[in-house]
Design brief:
CATH topology of the largest domain: TIM Barrel
Number of strands: 17
Shape: globular
CATH superfamily of the largest domain: Metal-dependent hydrolases
CATH architecture of the largest domain: Alpha-Beta Barrel
Low-confidence stretches: none
Bound molecules: zinc ion
Length: 425
């Protein structure tokens, strides 16, 4: 496959104008000037497009699409315990399949080529991911309060064994406890033991609210990050993602840095639940790998990394009153190369020879983007998910001219509308 006549935003701050990207199998074979002769049996014409690395959403709960626009304007604890958990109890495996399918379609249409998911009914999530063609790290999230006999933890381990590195490498897996406030210490230790035994990484929600931090200090005398560090949560091998990290001390950040934990910042979700604002510039200054997540559709209320990039590009300038804070290239890296590092795949996140072909084409002739001027600025400050024209994942075209080719979009929307009516009334 060749993408011809395209401007390439490499992802390392450089632009290559008027190039051809040659894709062989699932790899980027070479990037050459457009006038070079290349085999052209399968050509995508990229005129007026900007090719960039696919976006990585490092924290979401894909199946929560059925809760989109339900239970808004509430604080996290009330929202979670009085609205979300009771609604989730009514979700079935087949429903989850459709909800994940809708999430996958939504993300593909907004240029997300890889995401990290923490939820349940993960066999059904995997089935949806296999069909839609997206790339995902799937974690059967567990919590001690809902798993007194350890059945769900076993399910999580079995899922890892069955699915890690399947679907031509598009599906990988980790374990993960939901958060420190939904599991006791013994349970979290068991999760760590299982991860060690399997060679799996771990994910967790960390320091999302002031309440979580204050409760932890009251109960354990240390912050949530120090508490997890003591249990050995950050000593496992592989992918380590801490979602949120809104309320972190300097020592907490030093621990995260030392243990090689990636942060999934969920700016939109934290703003909406009024949890606070993660200090991304400070984390970056400490050399921590920071990436962007959307969190579930129930607290965002969509799964657009373009929206998160725009927030990241604007918010820290306003807070610091420094217009140089978080420039467009830095913001793009959060959503591409850093995201790739967070999910443990060094062959994603930049358009360069030898990397896996997860590439999106952004239509720069769109009235809200043209004239494109500085391409990185166009991506962060002008573009939205709807400007993505074509999506290639693992060397395969999964969306062309805004039509998802792998599954039926209307069918997924209809099914999830019906599920929402059935569960939420
Ligand atoms: Zn979350």
């Amino acid at each position: 496959m060749v993408i011809k006549n395209v401007n390439v935003l490499v992802g390392d701050g450089n632009i290559i104008n008027n190039a051809s990207i040659v894709i062989n199998g699932n790899k980027i074979e070479k990037i050459v000037p457009s006038d070079c002769a290349v085999a052209d049996d399968n050509v995508i014409y990229g005129n007026g497009m900007l090719a960039m690395p696919g976006l990585v959403n490092t924290h979401t709960h894909a199946a929560m699409t059925f809760l989109r626009n339900y239970a808004n304007d509430m604080n996290l604890q009330d929202w979670l315990f009085t609205k979300i958990f009771p609604a989730e109890d009514k979700l079935t495996a087949q429903m989850a399949y459709w909800c994940v399918k809708l999430a996958d379609i939504e993300m593909i249409k907004a240029g997300v080529t890889c995401y990290s998911d923490n939820y349940f009914f993960m066999d059904d999530a995997a089935r949806a991911v296999e069909e839609t063609g997206i790339r995902a790290v799937l974690s059967r999230s567990v919590s001690g309060i809902s798993d007194p006999e350890g059945k769900k933890l076993k399910e999580s381990c079995d899922f890892f064994k069955q699915y890690n590195n399947t679907a031509d490498g598009r599906i990988t897996s980790t374990l993960g406890a939901h958060a420190i406030y939904t599991s006791d210490t013994d349970y979290i230790r068991k999760v760590v033991e299982c991860a060690d035994g399997l060679g799996s990484g771990l994910q967790i929600h960390l320091a999302e609210t002031v309440k979580e931090v204050e409760d932890c200090i009251a109960q354990n005398g240390v912050t949530p990050t120090e508490y997890l560090d003591k249990i050995g949560y950050f000593d496992v091998e592989g992918v380590k993602i801490a979602a949120h990290c809104v309320h972190m001390t300097d020592n907490d950040l030093d621990i995260i840095k030392e243990k090689g934990v990636s942060v999934a910042a969920n700016i939109g979700s934290n703003l909406k639940l009024a949890s606070g604002i993660p200090d991304i510039p400070k984390m970056m200054a400490k050399g921590i790998n920071v990436s962007l997540g959307t969190d579930g559709a129930s607290s965002n209320n969509n799964l657009s990394i373009f929206n998160e990039m725009r927030l990241a590009g604007l918010l820290y300038k306003g807070l610091s009153m420094d217009p140089l804070m978080m420039n467009a290239d830095e913001v793009i890296r959060l959503a591409t190369a850093n995201g790739a590092r967070a999910v443990g795949n060094g062959c994603l996140g930049e358009i360069k020879e030898g990397n896996i072909a997860d590439i999106i084409l952004v239509d720069t002739t769109s009235p809200s983007i043209a004239p494109v001027g500085e391409p990185a600025a166009a991506v962060v400050y002008s573009a939205c998910g709807g400007d993505v024209d074509t999506v290639i994942i693992n060397g395969k075209t999964v969306m062309a001219h805004r039509v998802v080719l792998t599954c039926d979009e209307e069918e997924a929307v209809d099914n999830v509308n019906q599920i929402a009516r059935q569960i939420l009334g």
